[in-house]
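hey can u check if this looks right to u? its 255 residues, i copy pasted from the old doc so theres a chance i mangled smth
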Amino acid sequence: MIHPTAIIAKSAKLGANVKVGPFAIIDEDVVIGDNCIIGPHAHIESATIGTDNYIGDGAILGAAPQDLKYKNEKSSVKIGNNNVIREYASVHRATHEGASTVIGDNNFLMTLSHVAHDCVLGNKIILINGVALAGHVTIDDNVVLSAYTVVHQHCRVGKFVMAGGGTKIIKDIAPFCMVDGNDATINGLNKVGLKRSGFKAETIKAIEEMYSIFFRDKTLLFAEAIKKIEETIPRIPEVRYFIEFVKASKRGVER
């Protein structure tokens, strides 16, 4: 299961049925769960990885953050289960003592995608080739970022967002939207994604009505749009999540 050319620190902990390819390097402070596959030339340090993950050729997990404020604090990367991290993707550890860059479950990080320090990714996210996340970015569940999308530091992307190729995101992107462009602009509701994920027709209708109020009625200021949504749209979980997301924004929400 472990190629003789692989270099594995004595203190590293590998679970059952872990496969390690040629010339892979697994440093100290690494824990790898059962049934993981580590590709050739992958380098893993300061990371805890769950079960059933695939780490592709030349991927780098847990490297030091690209942050001039970082002074070698002891931090880490935490990765859940059933993720696919393809060749030459990189995930950097956090900047602060005891902090972690976090990736959840069932995510697909394609070739050359980059997750910077202190990012937090949820579940069922797809980062297509060349996506670059700056530090402290938060990506909620079921997001698809197409090739070469870039996300500014401290931005948040809500659930079920679909970003077109080459999108530049510099503000928070509200849930359920399609976004595209440089700078990013909202291009509609991600109805296809919602339908594929099993959303009921009445739920999609409520989201459509909420979307129309928030994005299409240009006479309403931000607070006025939120107030109208609260007064007129049924407070189903998706509506509550949308309201909580936009109210919590610190960088501003793209409208």
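Helices lie at 191-196, 201-216, 222-232, 237-247.
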